[in-house]
Amino acid sequence: MLHKFQMYTEQNRSILIIKSESVNLSAAEAFIVKREWNVRSCTNLNEAILFIVSERPQFIFVSVDHPNKNIIAFIKLLLQTFPERVIVFGEKPHSLTYHHFNETGCRYNIYPPVTGPAMERVLLSYYKNQLGANPTKVQSVPLTFKYNKIQKNEAWVYKNPQTKKSDDVILTLAKASEMFAVVDEAPLGKVKFAVSEAPSQGTVTATSPEVLNGTVKNNTETNPLGKKREPLNDSAPAHESLISRAAQEALQKTVLKTNSQKIEEIKISSDMSCILVQSTRFSGYLVAALGDNREVDGVFIQALRKRIFAFLKANGEKVNEADDPLRIVVQKVNFKNWAENKAEFLRKSVHKEEEVSIAFFPRQHIRLHFEESADEKMAKVKMTEIKPDVPVEFDLYIHLEENDRYIRYTKKGAKFLATQKKRLEAQGLKYMHVFKTDIPEFNKYRAQNFLNETIEQYHSAVEA
C-alpha cells in the first residue's frame, strides 16, 4: 500500500508512449489518463526525442515491435540515460518479441496484450522497488488526490535511506544528438531549441514552432503559448504513408507564418472543415481545425486540398476530385487528443497567428451510391443510411408509387425519428428520396455522423 501512496503523490505525472502505427492503445491510455496521468503517445522516434527533451516525462513506455530497424539500439540508449524510467512492451505475441525483451535487458516489461491495468501494475512495481525492503516513516503530508481505496485525510511518506531516488528524465544535448543519429529517420523539420539554465550540462528544451535554420540556438526564449507544449511538425517521417506526407507538405506550403509571439492554440473544437479523399489506395476524411474553434478559411482549405491532391497524383494516385471541401459541425471535442486516439495521423502547424491541425480518418465508402428515382431530379437512398434521431442536412421525401408523388417527410434541420423509421420499415418501405442537388449535403451528413461516432467512442474510452 505504501508504494501506492508514493505513486499518487508524485508531482511529475507524465508518460510518453512510443508505439507503432498499427497498434491501438486508446483503451489502455484512457485507463491511465483516468488515474490522473498525463499521457502522450507517438510513433515517430524523432518526435519522441524532442518530447523527452522538452517535457521530461516521468516514464517512457516504448514498444520493442516498433518498425524502426534500430529500435533496440534506441531502447538501449534510453536505458543508459534513465535506467529506471524506461518500460518496454510488446505488441505482438511472437517469439521475436520475447527475444527483443531479453535483448534490451530492461527491468520493467509488459507482455502483450498491453492493457491499462498492466501499465498501472508495472508503475506500482517501480514505486515499490523505490521504497526498498525496510522503508522508514519520516513525515506526514496531506493527500490531495482521490483514490477509492484510501479514505484517510493524511498519510505517512516512507523512504528507504539506502535507496537513492532516481534522477529526473533529463536528456543532454550530446545524448539527444546520439539518439537522432541512431534512429536515422527523416527530420521533423526546423524546430527551435533553447539551452536551459544549466548550459554546462548541455540540457535543451524545445520551444517555439517557428521556422528557423534547424540548428540549436543558444538563447532562452519562452514558448509563445506561455506553456510547454508538443512540437509542431514541419515534415512527415519518411516511413509514413503517402497521404501523410502529402498532408504535411501541403500544410507547410499553405500556411502563412508570422513573427508573432502570440499564437491561438487549438483546444475544444466543433467547427471544422473536411476534405473527402478517395484515390487508388486511400479513402477517408481529412479534417482540419483552426485556433480556438474558428471557422477554417475557405481559400485556405481549397488551397490545401489542391496541393494534397497534386501530391497524390504526382505519386501515381488516381484521385476523385468531385467534391469541394465541406464545413462540418460535430460534437465538441479536444481536437488533438481525439485525433491522436482515433485518426490515422495528425499534422500541425501555425497559420498567421493560429494553430492549425489536420487529421485523417479512414473510411471505406465516403460517397454513397445513389439509385435513380422515378423523377430525374430525385435520387433514392436506402433507409438504413439514415441515422435516426439526428438532424438531417436536406429535405427527406417518400415516394408514393400509386400516384407518382413525392411527399416531404422530414424537413431540413429536423430529426428523422427512430419511431418514424420503424413505422415506415413496418410498412415495407426501404428507400427515402432526396433531390440530386442535395447529394453533397448528404455526404456531409454521413461525414458528420461518422466523425461524431468516433468522438463518442473517444469520450467513452476516456470516461471508462
Describe this structure in words.
The protein is α+β, with helices and mostly antiparallel strands. The protein folds into 3 domains: 1-232, 3-Layer(aba) Sandwich (Rossmann fold); 242-362, no CATH class; 371-463, no CATH class. Helix content is 32%, strand content 23%. It has a 5-stranded parallel sheet, with helices on both faces. A 5-stranded antiparallel sheet has the order 12-10-11-14-13, with helices on both faces. α2 (26-34) links the parallel β1 (14-18) and β2 (38-42). α1 packs across α6, α4 (71-81) packs antiparallel against α7 (173-183) and α8 (242-254) crosses α9. It is elongated.
SSE topology sketch:
Elements (H helix, E strand, L loop, with lengths): L1 H7 L5 E5 L7 H9 L3 E5 L2 H11 L3 E5 L7 H11 L4 E4 L5 H10 L3 E3 L5 H16 L4 E7 L11 E6 L13 H11 L9 E3 L8 E3 L35 H13 L13 E11 L4 E8 L7 H17 L11 E9 H8 L2 E7 L2 E9 L8 E2 L5 E5 L13 E5 L4 E6 L7 H9 L4 E5 L3 H25 L1
Parallel strand pairs: 1-2, 1-3, 3-4, 4-5
Antiparallel strand pairs: 6-7, 8-9, 10-11, 10-12, 11-14, 13-14, 15-16, 16-19, 17-18
Helix pairs in contact: 1-6, 2-6, 2-12, 3-7, 4-7, 8-9
InterPro entries: CheY-like_superfamily
